[in-house]
Amino acid sequence: MARKAQSSKTFPIYVLNGPNLNLLGTREPEVYGHATLADIEKAVKARAKTHGLTVTFRQSNHEGELVDWIQEARTTGCGVILNAGAYTHTSVALLDACRAVNHPLIEVHLSNPYKREPYRRRSFIAEAADALICGLGANGYLLAVDALVALLKEEKE
Ligand code: DQA
Q1: 109 CA distance to ligand 1 middle (Å)
Q2: How confident is the model at residue 10 (pLDDT cuts 50, 70, 90)?
Q3: Which atom of ligand 1 lies nearest, measured to the CA of 83?
Q4: Ligand 1 centre and the CA of 87: distance in Å?
Q5: CB 67 within 8 A of CB 94
Q6: For residue 93, with 0-12 CB atoms within 10 Å meaning exposed, 13-18 middle and 19 or more buried, which class applies?
Q7: What's the predicted TM-score (pTM) here?
């Protein structure tokens, strides 16, 4: 089904982060790197600005709050970049919310879950995502911004 692009000049990209990502920088830096979530937010906003876009950047440890924000992005966002943390591997509720989003949605992970424990190899989000970027650390968020812009351009054409 063709999607109708919501103007990216008016509506922000939602960059949503799940549980424990508030601890980035101090949490298992050998796995997740040294950048803090505040560092990533700054870099993501700067990258989006080069495309003339704005960003709503949030983090929550609570599944329901993430569901609310994904729903919010349906009406007040132009696209979603989602690192659902551990909820990636468990949450049908997040999958259902993502399925209801009618904009491009990109799943991001700092680490490469497919190289890690078997229970991280299942992603519920992937079933609703247009693309998946993982294993590239904080840079993955910036690549996701560029990729989202490309998807938004495709929709306009
Ligand atoms: C993560 C990978 C998940 O498996 C893990 O639970 C996280 C972070 C990542 O960004 O690599 O919390 O989403």
Answers
A1: 6
A2: confident
A3: 13
A4: 9
A5: yes
A6: middle
A7: 0.95
